[in-house]
Amino acid sequence: MRIDLHCHSTASDGTDSPAELVRNAAAAGLDVVALTDHDTTRGHAQAVAALPEGLTLVTGAELSCRLDGVSLHMLAYLFDPEEPDLLAERELVRDDRVPRAQGMVAKLNELGVPVTWEQVRRIAGEGSVGRPHVASALVEAGVVPTVSDAFTQEWLADGGRAFVEKHETDPFTAIRLVKQAGGVCVFAHPAAAKRGRTVPERAIAEMAAAGLDGIEVDHMDHDAETRVRLRGLAAELGLLVTGSSDYHGSRKTVALGEYTTDPEVYGEITRRSTGAFPVPGTGGR
């Protein structure tokens, strides 16, 4: 089985619609794909409706969190999307995205960069607006060559010249809410240092004690040495190890299925979940 447990659609900051995502996942030879848009489950229904035969969908979301001033992301799988406490927290995070993006545009304008809020809103479309949409505007303006090049201290990285903070959930609260909603919680790309500051290993140990289920180890932002270190940490803490593409369509160079999760780990994730269940494809349109 080929299992990719971290993918984004136009419901947040990917460039494939949810329907296109599942069709492309099947074409890439995946057996299981997770739709984990940022702080939203809005793309799930479209993905389910289009799900090809032979492909299983894991519903989820990537939750925006912050600990001691460090931004981090928590992958939540197979939770009840209507559970009121987790739903309310996701809405708080989403509602802060628009003023945050507007603030980043204002800072860029102050730096002499010719981007507009209308441009960012057009790029985001129906998705939850975020930094990658502002980064795409910088690419359109010819300021940086790629979206990844916008995530530096010069521009949009944490603490960068045009960075603006937003409401982000305490990760211990996120873990509690996801578990309360019957889901499974995996710390996304925990050592992706090129994105900015990362949390220390002692914090991951504290999260494990609070109910964290796993850490995403095989990821494009982790080099070989980092993966070895994280595997050792996961074994020490009794955490599951996942691998995922973190696919964003054309917004990133990584391909669907470039990194995958072991079938036994996937099986354990499904065993632990009670809020929702994987959806088998029956031949969507």
Account of the protein in words:
The chain contains ten helices and eight strands. Strand 3 (56-67) and strand 4 form a beta hairpin. The chain is 36% helix and 15% strand. The mean pLDDT is 94. Strands 1, 2, 3, 4, 5, 6, 7 and 8 form an eight-stranded mixed β-sheet that branches. It is globular and about 50 Å long. With 285 residues, the protein is α/β, with parallel strands linked by helices.
Provide a concise account of the structure shown.
By secondary structure, the chain is of the alpha/beta class. The protein has ten helices and eight strands.
Write the layout of secondary structure elements.
Blueprint: E1 3-7, H1 18-27, E2 32-35, H2 44-49, E3 56-67, E4 70-77, H3 84-95, H4 97-110, H5 117-124, H6 131-140, H7 171-180, E5 184-187, H8 201-209, E6 214-218, H9 224-237, E7 240-243, H10 263-272, E8 279-280
Parallel strand pairs: 1-2, 2-3, 5-6, 6-7
Antiparallel strand pairs: 3-4, 3-8, 4-5
Helix pairs in contact: 5-6
Question: Segments where pLDDT lies below 50 for 5+ residues?
Answer: none
Q: What's the shape?
A: globular
Radius of gyration: 18 Å
> How helical, in percent, are the residues?
25-40%
Average pLDDT score: 94
Structural class of the helices, strands and pairings?
Answer: alpha/beta
Tally of helical segments: 10
**Termini separation (Å)?**
24 Å
What kind of sheet is the major sheet?
Answer: 8 strands, mixed
Strand content: 15-25%
Give the strand tally: 8
SSE string: EHEHEEHHHHHEHEHEHE
